[in-house]
Amino acid sequence: MLRALTTAATGMIAQQLNIDVISNNLANVNTAGFKKVRVEFQDLLSQTLRTPGAQVSQGTYQPVGIQVGLGTRTSGTQKDFSEGTFKSTGGKLDVAIEGEGFFQIQLDDGSIAYTRDGSFKVDANGQFTTTDGYPVIPQVTLDQNVSEVVITSDGSVSVKKGSDVNMTTVGTFQLVKFPNPSGLLSMGKNLYTETTGSGSPIQGQAGQNGFGTTQQGFLEGSNVMVVEELINLIQAQRAFEANSRLITASDELLKTANRLS
Description:
Number of strands: 22
């Protein structure tokens, strides 16, 4: 019965982590550029009581064996980078990536982070930044007398200054993509950093060589589906309850065995 107790305990631990991940997905249902996470499981080692194919007599082999699994564990958390729904904001500094790619953001230590959140702002120097003040790379700066900003699908940023009739190009968003975006490290603030698992970033221009296009006046919403997450939550809760009942049942059997001794 002790084996059943420990096995059921691994199931409860795994489902608790599953519920934690689901709750984080639901908490970020309105977070721009957020990508939902899925928990993946794998079984633990099995205790082999009889090996499949073992010889039981001369010329006779056991077609099946006896193996008892010892539970489950979390093998990883897979981030789903499928595209979220686009929301029209009308903001001249709001930019969504329709397709593959990330914006580049410079952190305080000079390193580069990546994001799908295009809710940009302009700081005191007229430079495009994130909500937390991190500048966008390559730098795009607007003058104080800018009267109109146009961001085209290829990432080009053009402005109209004062009473000028013609538009002037002041910069271009350079996008990056990764061989394995699921290997990126989430650091909060809608930012990701490169890891060995993600591979090195590949730079390119929006709309070319498989990169997505930039859409001004839109933001990419979270790709979390509330109904889907609620269904996952119910399944995780029922699995947790089933494992807890197994512990109760094992405890009752141990209690009965102790009474007989």
